[in-house]
Amino acid sequence: MPAEKFDVIVVGAGPAGNSCAYTLAKRGLKVLQIERGEYPGSKNVQGAIMYANMLEKIIPDFRDDAPLERHLIEQRLWYMDDSSYTGVHYRSDDFNEEAPNRYTIIRAQFDKWFSKKVQEAGALLILETTVTDLCFSGGKVIGVKTDRAGGTILADVVVMAEGVNGVLGTKAGLRPRPKPDTVALAVKEMHFLPSDVIESRFNISGDEGVVIEAAGTITRGMAGTGFLYTNKESISIGIGCLVSDFAHTGLAPYELLEAFKKHPAVAPLIAGAEVKEYAAHLIPEGGYNAVPQLFGDGWLIVGDAGQFVNAVHREGSNLAMTTGRIAAEAIFQIKSRKDKFSAENLSLYQKMLESSFVMKDLKKYKRLPDFMHGARDRLFGSYPELVSKAAQNWFRVDGKDKKSKEKEIVRSFVKARGVRGLASDAWKLARSWR
Ligand SMILES: Cc1cc2nc3c(=O)[nH]c(=O)nc-3n(C[C@H](O)[C@H](O)[C@H](O)COP(=O)(O)OP(=O)(O)OC[C@H]3O[C@@H](n4cnc5c(N)ncnc54)[C@H](O)[C@@H]3O)c2cc1C
Predict the structure, then answer these.
(1) How far is it, in rounded angstroms, from Cα 279 to Cα 317?
(2) What is the pTM of this model?
């Protein structure tokens, strides 16, 4: 273990840690990054969609050599019951732009590439090493201890980019253990198919890609969603629900995934594929109200460890990269002023976050997790069935006049939930969406 003191120690080499370490090292700070995995990305799970804008702010020319799968030209949103889906699809040739906006990636490859950039920028990376404790002096974090021999490694600031599963901040009493109703457990498989099969099934060509986000009875009345993303020669398919809901129902995540794969709208898309990978991981989904204290004397929290995920838009890696970059910029400003890394000075990080899209988006949806959870039996149970029946009634040409069909549809919703119940759900949804 290095005996010298560092400006900054970054714990974790996911998107948050890599963005932070890269930005700091590029500006000449002495950075040590510690990752418990065998290589960066070996422990990480993501769908995975990567958002270019946030990476461009860190590595503007990333498209030159980053391992990117497909750029996305089509988004499908499906509200599913057991045999149907009602959907909204958006596809545009405008997304075939020179610098595309969203890509699918494979995290094991992407994190390795990002980490190489971090090391080229000058940061020192130590792998297969777990940070076991933060070290304090007079209430201030002054370094870390690891599971390797060599004692304490000292630094002016420690950045915890340890992800949602990280226990370091919790162990030190700096952040609460995430509650079961603020984290989702997601499972994901990679289904391999030749690229031309994927292209013909999804009506795409070249590097074009499609995203399907799904909700409904696929989660059996639990708050959660499913997804299906096209990579070059594979399809990522997954599903996740709040841990508290799994505990309550006793259902297992893989049961949901098996049923999702067999759904008549999904099965033909993955038919004949070879499954090579299965992974499970937590996603912080508590939103704004679950964000812990983010700074203190000598420490900052970035990425999933700070609950920075926008579950509505399925954005996490971009919030991780942005919080990592902003933390680095705050540290750099304080260092340039030759100021102390006190809690007061490090509160600059929080101020910078407040004026970024990260906090603005989390604030916008701050009521949504409670609404989704409270209305989960309807949102992920009765409503998708009612919507599907209504669509089927409307589209079936059976000699019944349209006015009667309209009345039947309205009646079916009122019968299921009552006028007051429907009005209450609509009002709560609108309020959560503001
Ligand atoms: C199934 C699934 C699908 C997802 N899909 C998407 C998507 O499509 N788009 C999107 O933007 N986001 C998605 N996300 C969310 C996204 O993966 C996360 O938001 C993102 O990975 C957070 O990055 P991070 O760097 O904060 O944490 P992580 O990526 O979890 O990285 C944390 C790192 O810290 C290391 N570490 C932890 N503790 C220690 C320790 N004590 N010592 C040393 N190292 C340590 C870990 O090994 C890990 O490498 C998805 C998540 C899941 C689970």
Answers:
(1) 17
(2) 0.95
